[in-house]
Structures are given as C-alpha cells and as structure tokens.
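User: quick one, sequence for these tokens?
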C-alpha cells in the first residue's frame, strides 16, 4: 500500500511526538512541525530510519511564517493526506479577574488562530484532490468549563466549534474531520501551563493515573486508518480516574 503523508503540528513533545512515532511505524510519511528545531532534528533523524521524514520550523501563531513554510514544501511533499492539528498549550491557571493578558493572547493566538493558519494552508489541496483527513486535538476543557480554566477552555471550545464548522463546509469534498478531546494526559502540558514549575506540574497528577501521550497517539492512529467511508467524529477520552473536568478520583 502506498504511504500517505501526514503533517503533525507540535511534534516536538507529548501527544504530537508520540503520534509522529506511531505514524512513522505504520505506513505514513511525515512532515513534523514545531518551534524547537533541535528536537525536530533529533526526532526526524530517529524516524527517518522507519520512513521518509521532513520537518518545518514555525510558530503556528505567525500566519505569514506558516504560509511561507508550508508553501516551501517540495512537490513530493505537497499532497498532504492527513493533518494533525495538535500544537497548543495552556498558559496559566488563574481566575479571570487576575488573568495575565500575555497568557490570554498566547492561548488564543496559538490554540485557535494557529490551528486556523495551518488548516488554511493545507485544506485547499485536500479540496482539489477531494480527499483528506483533518484531526483537531481539542480537550475536555472545550466541552466543559472549569474554575480558573476560563480562556484555555474558551480556546478549546473554539476548536470544538471550528471542527464542527469544518465538518459542514468540507462535507461536499469528502474530507474527513475528527476531533479528539482528551482529559488529563501526562506530557509537558502542565510544565508549560505552570511556567516551568515542575513540582506544581507533578501535583496535577498526584494520586491518580493520567493518560499517556501514547494512549492518545494510538487513538489517532486508529482514527486515521479507518476505511474510506468511516470517520470518527468527536471522541472524548479520559483516564478511568476522571469523571469530568473537575471530578477526579485520587488516592489519599
Ligand atoms: P506538550 O506541551 O507536550 O506539547 C505541545 C506541543 O505544541 C509542542 O510540540 C510544542 O512545540 C507545540 N507548540 C506549542 N506552542 C506552539 C507554537 N506557538 N507554534 C508551534 N508549535 C507550538 O503538550 P501536549 O502534548 O499535552 O499538548 C498537545 C495538544 O493536546 C495541545 O493542543 C493541548 O491543548 C492538547 N491537550 C492536552 C491535554 C493534556 O492534559 N496534556 C489534554 C487535552 C488536550 P514547540 O514548543 O517545539 O513549538
Ligand atoms: C488539558 C486538560 O483538564 O487540564 O486540555 O484542561 S485540562
């Protein structure tokens, strides 16, 4: 079977990196994206033992950079079959009245506008070819608001709406659209949210077993390998210990 091309944003850590590793081992060629060039180089080197890999270094929030970077792909890489819109993070966890403007801007610029910037560059080719699959990584935070989650929840709620909008608008072209909405996953996510405070990040998962990046990557692989007539639409995936965004069973 001919290999399909997948573009993965946020491939330098966590869910994106795990997804890249699994797709590389399962008949995909990869375009790996992120800002940390050293990590991209290292992961690309490792995965090129398994498949063809290329990488693009850009900040998803910078529209011109995204456009130039994706347009710079050589012909052999232009027909992207699968787009995994994964890049994103929470920045801060504070009541809205004391929220940091810079954190708010980052979450909206990266999680919402970034996803739009990348999709815009990839969608038109899919429309021309009348095939393709867009997988947006949302969150339980986009389905339920929790205390202090305010702007992060809003950004992921926007991802949920954009996913649903894509499903309507891309329907005439046979393009599959999926959202994967995880609960708690142990990645660099909490370290970024708490601005490098490793102790606080660790406490997020204290007394409970979170999901791993590989758990989500396995779900993504399953999603993008369904038969041509099948699409998983919206998937909520939680650790067993988690009943909602706020109810988590922890050992004493
Ligand atoms: P990580 O912090 O491990 O990974 C985040 C990835 O996003 C990194 O590869 C990072 O790469 C990339 N990224 C962040 N900002 C930018 C930017 N401005 N431009 C380009 N790339 C960027 O966290 P996760 O793997 O957990 O997060 C992946 C996705 O999963 C996010 O969308 C997150 O919201 C979502 N999610 C996470 C959950 C969790 O509990 N961990 C639960 C639900 C959803 P680099 O720094 O190199 O640019
Ligand atoms: C990440 C999961 O619950 O911290 O999206 O918002 S949560």
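Assistant:
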């Amino acid at each position: 079977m001919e290999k399909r091309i997948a573009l993965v944003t946020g491939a330098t850590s966590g869910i994106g990196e795990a997804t890249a590793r699994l797709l590389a081992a399962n008949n995909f060629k990869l375009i790996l994206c992120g800002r940390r060039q050293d990590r991209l180089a290292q992961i690309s080197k490792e995965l090129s033992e398994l498949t063809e890999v290329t990488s693009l270094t850009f900040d998803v929030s910078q529209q011109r950079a995204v456009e130039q970077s994706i347009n710079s792909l050589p012909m052999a890489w232009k027909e992207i079959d699968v787009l995994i819109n994964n890049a994103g993070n929470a920045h801060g966890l504070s009541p809205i009245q004391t929220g940091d403007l810079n954190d708010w801007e980052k979450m909206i610029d990266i999680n919402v506008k970034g996803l739009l910037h990348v999709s815009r560059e990839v969608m038109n080719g899919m429309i021309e070819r009348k095939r393709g699959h867009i997988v947006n990584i949302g969150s339980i935070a986009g389905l339920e608001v929790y205390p202090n989650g305010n702007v992060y929840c809003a950004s992921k709620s926007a991802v949920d709406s954009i996913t649903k909008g894509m499903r309507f608008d891309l329907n005439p072209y046979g393009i599959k659209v999926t959202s994967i909405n995880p609960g708690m996953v142990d990645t660099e996510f909490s370290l970024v949210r708490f601005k490098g405070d490793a102790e606080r990040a660790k406490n997020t998962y204290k007394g409970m077993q979170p999901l791993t990046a590989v758990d989500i990557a396995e779900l993504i692989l399953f999603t993008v390998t369904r038969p041509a007539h099948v699409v998983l639409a919206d998937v909520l995936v939680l650790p067993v210990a988690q009943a909602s965004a706020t109810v988590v069973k922890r050992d004493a």
